[in-house]
Predict the structure of At3g05675-like ankyrin-like domain-containing protein.
Amino acid sequence: MDHSCRRRRRTWCCSFAVPPSSPDNLYAATHYSKPRQGKSETFSKPNLSVPSSPQSTKSGSRMAGRIDPRRILSPGRVSPIDSDPAADNSAAPIPSPVIDSRPQLRSRSFRAPTPPPPPPAVVKEEGSGSGGTKDGVFDVRMCLRGKNGGCMVLELNSVVLYANSEVFAGLISDYKKGSDSSSNGSGSSSKMCRIEVPEVDNLGLFRETIELMFEDDLTKRLSKIGVFRSIDLLEVAAGIKFTRGVLSCLKYLEAVPWTEEEEEKLRSLFTRFKFDDATTRDILGRLYLNDSADSQPNVAMQLVWSITSSADANARNELKSLVKGLLSKSSVYEKNHVDLSKEDLYSVCHSCLASLVSLFEGKSDDNPREHSFPKKDMNKPLIERIARQVDNINWLLEIMFDGQLAEDFVDIWANQCQLLKLHDDASPMVRYELSRVSATLFVAIGTRKLQCRLESRSGLLQAWFKPMLLDFGWLQRCKKGLDMKALEEAMGQALLTLPLKQQHMLFMEWFRYFSKHGTECPNLSKAFQIWWRRSFLRGSETHDIESR
């Protein structure tokens, strides 16, 4: 052979830069034992399987005729069933194309082009010799080299690779051009195209993606693999521009439900890869709210209105827990556009207060919000309808406490002069519901959950302390989740936050009422002693009291 006709070695590289590796980095590389006495060993097919990937027996049997297990070789081994070994050895050495897989080039754009026509060199090769079908010719030897040092060699059909992957189509075309120019000088051509893919994270996953090119029904295969594995395959298929595989993966993923882990995996994939809108519109519609926040205004407000207007007690209680957890500051969910504003909360509170006034006056028909359930709600007893509005207010107060927004409500509740008058005229078995709202505020102040101005605390206690004394007995009988011991402690602590002169007036009122009604009145003895000590004892006597 004329050595002057030999081509200088050059690096074969695609302009695309290469298949990204799997994000899982599962260890599926095939390890080869050290050759003994200059001979390399051929490993059986089970050693190349991926344990973490579900493989069906039926699918494996179909692939046996398409990727010959005898052609999965150790590095450096010459296939014993090559059609013309002599021609391969006599041909001028053609360098193997290398797919560059540098990590910094992993984020790239994928678009679905029209499939290119098969190259003339491949068609000629196919018609000249080893079988007429696309599965009958294995004229591409692909060497996969893992980052962890493993290696896997696959012998494949160039027509299948060319038709399915834009990356491999370019490599095969370049290789055939180099082979033809070399054969003009040497009189022979190389029948085996060699492609090397370095730094593959998951060899088994890459091989599984290549196998999809030989599948006729990709959706059926993906349904057996599952969502999590299909996302990995989608990443590799997008990296090698395997258009049919990408479209099949996206179609399958859009049609099935996801777990939270799978959803986060998809989000991560879409931040690293850019697909055309037509290809991913449906999936992105499930992952992101593409419209602006103004297109769906006040979603949280609508939820709150629905709950406060609900007439079904069981459904209302269930939804209250759900929405309160979603709106809580400690919630794990993102709340970029669903926060309730202070104005929204207070508008609902004012509506509930207006409903209470109307119900105590016997004019519930005047409330426009009551018309949402005119027949079902109006047939219920008055006490039940009043209790529903009180439950709504206390639920809204819990949301306000979490957001530190309840200070203004203290002033609003202290100035409910009309409700105070109606409380005096109402039946004890109905009016005690109003004291449940006062109890919520007293507990919040006494336990330091609510901080408000002195004027607000003073107005609240002066307005609602006496009604609380009157209703305490009914609150004991109908607790509805209220901790009476905590209420007594909190009432005493709230009184002690006032100036001593105001404390004197309120504690003396409690003392007179407690002496007449006993256990029907809250026991504020502990707070009364503290007030007494602060007001009348000085010096050593104060120290003795504190010691006892």
Confidence is low (pLDDT under 50) at residues 1-66, 69-94, 100-135, 364-374. The first strand starts at residue 108 and ends at 110. The first helix runs from residue 57 to 64.
